[in-house]
Amino acid sequence: MSTTDDWAAQTTADPLATTEGERLDGRVALVAGGGLSGPLGGVGFSIAWLCGSAGAHVAVVDRDQAAGVRAVAAIRDAGGEAEWFSADVTDSASVESAVDAVVRRFGRIDLVADSIGGGGAVPALEIDDDEFDRVMQLNFLSAWRIIKFAQRHMTAGGSVVTISSGATEGRGPTMPYTIAKTALEKLTVGAASSLAPRGIRVNGVRVGMIWGAFAARGMTEEQRELRRQNVALQTEGTVWDIASAAFFLLSDRARWVSGQVLAVDGGGFAMKANTGAAGSAPARKAAS
Ligand SMILES: NC(=O)c1ccc[n+]([C@@H]2O[C@H](COP(=O)([O-])OP(=O)(O)OC[C@H]3O[C@@H](n4cnc5c(N)ncnc54)[C@H](O)[C@@H]3O)[C@@H](O)[C@H]2O)c1
Predict the structure, then answer these.
(1) How remote is the CA of residue 214 from the centroid of ligand 1, in Å?
(2) What is the pLDDT of residues 135-191, one digit of tens each?
(3) How many domains are there within the chain?
(4) pTM assigned to the model
(5) In 10 A of CB 200, how many CB atoms?
(6) In-domain check, residue 161
(7) What is the distance in A from the centroid of ligand 1 to the CA of 286?
(8) Lowest pLDDT segment from 59-63, 109-113, 127-131
(9) How many Cα atoms sit within 13 Å of 29 on the Cβ side?
(10) Is 31 part of any domain?
(11) For residues 165 and 271, which has the higher predicted lDDT (pLDDT)?
(12) Atom of ligand 1 nearest to the CA of 116
C-alpha cells in the first residue's frame, strides 16, 4: 500500500527535482564564436566557460586563434576540458572540416551553441550585394551551416542554441542585420521541428542591450548610457545574463523546451511616462 512518503520519493526521483547545479559530464559541447575576444568577454566565451565548468568537453570553434587559445586556457584554469578548432563560419568546407575534427577528437557532439554575428547597422536599401551577403553570411548562413554539419553527429539527441538580437523586434530602419537575425530565428524554429523526432532540441536567445566585447566595438559612453535608460529594468545586461539563459536551454533543465526564442533583455524597451490616456474620455457627439 502506498504511503505519502512513497509518493514523495516517487515523484522527487525526477532528475529535475533538485536545486543542485546542472552537470554536463560526458557531453561534448561545440561553441562557435567561443573565443575570448577581449577583456569584457563575449557571449560565446561565457557559454563555453559554463559548459566546461559543468563538466562538458568543450570545442571552441573560432577563426581567431588567439581568442580560441585564451578561451581554452580560461576553461582549463577553471578545471574544465577544452580545445580550440579553427573555422571560418562563412565557409561551408571550413565548418564541415572543423565539425569533423571535433568528432575525431571528442567522439561525439551533444550540445551546440552559435554566438557568431554582428555588423550591418546600415539601411539595407543603400548597400551593395557584397555587404548584404556579408551580413547574411555572418548572422544567418553561419548558423545554418553549423547546425547542418553538427546535427549529423548528434546521434544521442542533444540541444542547440542560437544567438539572435532584439533588433528583430524593430520596424526600422531596414537593416540587413535585422533581416539576417529574423531569418536566424526562423531557422531556429524550423530546425527544432526537423530535429525533434531525433530528440534534438533547438532554441534561441534574443539578446537585449548587453555590454560586452561585441557592444564595446563602436559605442561611446554616451550611447551606452542612453541604451541603458532605454531598458525597462534600467540596467544593461552582461554576457553572463545571456550565457545563463543559453546554458539553461542547453541543459536538461530545459528538456521539454524546443522551438523557442527567449528574449533576455531586461524587460524590453522602457515605457517612458505616458502623456495621454488614449480612449479614456467619453465619446464626443458627432456635430449635427
Ligand atoms: N552585445 C550586444 O549588445 C548584442 C545585442 C544583440 C545581439 N548580440 C549578438 O551576440 C553575439 C555576440 O557574441 P559575442 O559576445 O560572443 O561576440 P564576441 O565578439 O565576443 O565573439 C565573437 C567571436 O566570433 C569569432 N568570429 C567572428 N567571425 C567569425 C567567423 N567568420 N568565423 C569564425 N569565428 C568568427 C570572433 O573571433 C570572436 O571570438 C552576436 O551574435 C550578436 O549579434 C549582441
Answers:
(1) 6
(2) 999 999 999 999 999 999 999 999 999 999 999 998 777 789 999 999 999 999 999
(3) 1
(4) 0.94
(5) 23
(6) yes
(7) 57
(8) 127-131
(9) 36
(10) yes
(11) 165
(12) 41
Predicted local confidence at residue 5, as pLDDT: 78
Cβ proximity of 102 and 30 under 8 Å? yes
Best mutation site among 91, 115, 144 for ligand 1, i.e. most ligand atoms within 8 A of its Cβ? 115
Backbone angles phi, psi at 23, to 5 degrees: -110, 145
Grade residue 257 by pLDDT with cuts at 50, 70 and 90. very high
- Is residue 268 assigned to a domain? no
Question: For residue 76, which of 90, 58, 99, 96 has the smallest C-alpha distance?
Answer: 58
- Ranking 34-38, 72-76, 80-84, 210-214 by mean pLDDT, the lowest is 210-214
For residues 210 and 46, is the Cβ–Cβ distance under 8 A? no
Q: Which three cell numbers stand for residue 132?
A: 548584404
Query: Is there a domain that residue 15 lies in?
Result: no
In short, whether 49's Cβ falls inside 6 Å of ligand 1 is: no
Over its C-alpha atoms, the chain yields an Rg (Å, rounded) of 22
78: CATH: 3.40.50.720
- Amino acid letter, 27: R
The domain in which residue 180 lies consists of 24-206+238-263
Task: Take residue 259 and report the three cell numbers written for it.
Answer: 522551438
> Is 177 annotated in the active site?
yes
Q: d(Cα 118, Cα 120) in Å, to the nearest integer?
A: 7
* Position 20, amino acid: E
Model pLDDT, residue 218: 79
Is the CB of 118 within 6 Å of ligand 1?
yes
Helix, strand, coil % over all residues of the chain, rounded to 5: 45, 15, 40
